Amino acid sequence: MFLGCGIGVSKSRPILLSSAPYWFAHPATSGVDKDRSGVISDSELQQALSNGTWTPFNPVTVRSIISMFDRENKGGVNFNEFAGVWKYITDWQNIFRTYDRDNSGFIDRNELKQALTGFGYRLSDQFYGTLIEKFDRQRKGQVAFDDFIQCCIVLQRLTDVFRRYDTDQDGWIQVSYEQYLSMVFNVV
Ligand SMILES: [Ca+2]
Ligand SMILES: [Ca+2]
């Protein structure tokens, strides 16, 4: 999925263009750290990633991923943290390929259902329609690699917050207005 290394890229699928050990050793020399600051910024990571189409990688997803690994809140990741970013994205790539059963480069509604069911979610068919509608940035009725990651991140965060309140785990919670606002602020 990394671009910019002079190797061809598939039009329809995210392709890993560089071997991991090289990146672990020297993201700078491979061109990700464009300004050679020692920190990979959002825009540098975004430029290094491909969602398998010719559109830019979802900036919201890039921000989510950077913030997960940016321990000092410096607005980017250092080379050590980048190793974690690399593994995280590679893991997602493997998951994406596993569930993109028809190799279309997109996750359709059925594939999304398979994936999320595999992760342990129990959601109605109607809600899968809602998810596709929310995360399908390219308006294709299915989600690309970056939007699939985003969908899973948001769903996971919302579920974690819900679970904190659902102490008896019956799938129902009763919250006050301010509790509700706090729940949402935890995610947005
Ligand atoms: Ca940089
Ligand atoms: Ca597919």
TrEMBL record:
- InterPro entries given in the database record: EF-hand-dom_pair, EF_Hand_1_Ca_BS, EF_hand_dom, Peflin/Sorcin_CaBP
Which Gene3D superfamilies does the record match to this protein?
EF-hand
Q: Name one GO molecular function term.
A: calcium ion binding
Q: How does it sit in the membrane?
A: Peripheral membrane protein
Q: Where is the EF-hand domain?
A: 87-122, 153-188
Can you say where in the cell this protein is located? Cytoplasmic vesicle, COPII-coated vesicle membrane; Endoplasmic reticulum membrane; Endosome; Nucleus
Q: Name one GO cellular component term.
A: ER to Golgi transport vesicle membrane
- Report keywords, A-Z: Acetylation, Angiogenesis, Apoptosis, Calcium, Cytoplasm, Cytoplasmic vesicle, Endoplasmic reticulum, Endosome, Magnesium, Membrane, Metal-binding, Nucleus, Repeat
Give an example GO biological process: angiogenesis
- Name of a matching Pfam family: EF-hand_5
Q: Sum up the protein's function in the record's words.
A: Has a lower Ca(2+) affinity than isoform 1.
Cite the record's note on assembly. Answer: Homodimer and heterodimer; heterodimerizes (via the EF-hand 5) with PEF1. Isoform 1 and isoform 2 self-associate; probably forming homodimers. Interacts with CPNE4 (via VWFA domain). Interacts with PDCD6IP; the interaction is calcium-dependent. Interacts with RBM22. Interacts with PLSCR4. Interacts with ANXA7 and TSG101. Interacts with DAPK1. Interacts with SEC31A; the interaction is calcium-dependent and promotes monoubiquitination of SEC31A. Interacts with ANXA11 (via N-terminus); the interaction is calcium-dependent.
Record's protein name: Programmed cell death protein 6
From which lineage does this chain's organism come?
A: Eukaryota, Metazoa, Chordata, Craniata, Vertebrata
